[in-house]
Amino acid sequence: MQTKAKRLLSLDVFRGATVAAMILVNNPGSWGNIYATLKHAEWNGCTPTDLIFPFFLFIVGVSIAYAYGTKKMDKPLHPALLLKAGKRTLILFGLGLMLSLFPRVFVDPIGAFEVVRIPGVLQRIAVVFFISAFLFLKLPPKKILFVGVALLVIYWIIMTFIPVPGIGPANLGKETNMGAWLDRTLLTEAHLWKSVKTWDPEGILSTVPAISTCLFGILVGVYLKRTDVDHPTKVAWLCFYGFLTFIIGMAWALQFPLNKSLWTSSFVLYTGGLATLVLALTYWIIDYKGYRRFTKPFVIFGMNAITVFFLSGIMARCLGLIKVSEDLSLKAWIYNTFMTPYFSPTNASLVYALFFVSIWGIIALIMFNRKIFIKV
C-alpha cells in the first residue's frame, strides 16, 4: 500500500506533451499544407488535434485535485484559496485577451478593444479552472460527478430540443445552433472568432460542457491521490472507467455527434475516456515502473506550460510582422529558405512546425535548468 500521495511525474509529462502538441498544430509553415491528423475536424468528428484542448482541461482538473486536495477539508482556508484562484483566473483571462489584442493594441488601442475577440483558449481555461476549483472545494466527489453529468445532460437538451430564437428548430449547424445565436447576441460579431465572426469555437454556451471535462479530471485526480489503493488496482480501475466512458461517448455520438467546436456531451465523454486511458498508461510506466529517462523533454514543457504557450503565440505573430524585405516576413523567409526547397509542401510545413517547437523546447530547457518556473 502507498503511504502518501506524491507529485505525479506522469501528469507533468502528459501536460508537457499536450502543450508541445498545442504549439505544433498552431504553427505550421503553411496553413494550406497540413497533414490531416494535424487539422481540426471540419465540423463533426474528432481528429488527434481535436484531443489536445480537452486533454489540457482534463489535466487542469487532475492538477486541481492535487493542488487543493489537502486543503479541501480545512474550510476556513477556502476564502483565501478561492481568492488566489480568482487572481489566477483574471491573469489567465487577461493573457488570453492580450493574445487577441496583440499587436494592434500598441498601434490603435481603442480600435483594438472595439473588435477584440473575447472568447479564446486561455479565456476558457480561466473560466473552467475557477468554476471547477470552486466546485471541488465545496462538494464531495459524488456530487461533483452528479454536477458533471447534469451539465452534459442539460447542454444536450438545450442544443437538441430548444428552438433557436429567430432561426427555428434546434439544430447543430455552424451558424444556426443555440450556442452561435447566444454568442452573437451577447458578444456581437465584433468580438467573436475573426475567421467567421458568426460563431466561436470557444463560445459561451459550449464552455458549460467544458467544465465537465475538467470535473472529469478532478475525479481521476481524487482517485489517484488515494493512499489506501495500490498502483496496479488504480491503473486497472482507471482503464476500466476510461474505456467505459469512451464507449458511452461513442454511443451518445450516434445522436449527439462528436464536435469540438460545439464541445458536445459525447465529445466530453469520448475525450475524457481517452485522457484517462493515456494518464493511466503513463502513470503505470513512469510513476509505478519508474521508466523516466524519456520524460525530461516533456517535463520541461509541462513545468512552464501556460508561459510557453502564451509566449509562443506572441513569437509566432512577431515572426509574421518582422519584415526581411518589403513583402517578405521573417517567418516566410525562414520557411522559404530552409524548408520549401528541400521537402514536399506538406512535409515542409511540418518541419517548420517542428522547428518552432524545438525553439521553445530550448527556451523551456534553459528556464528549467535555471529553475525558472512561472506559475500563472
From TrEMBL:
Transmembrane segments: 12-31, 51-68, 89-106, 118-137, 144-164, 203-223, 235-255, 267-286, 298-322, 349-368
Organism domain of life: Bacteria
Keyword terms, alphabetized: Membrane, Transmembrane, Transmembrane helix
Protein name: DUF5009 domain-containing protein
Species annotation: Albibacterium profundi
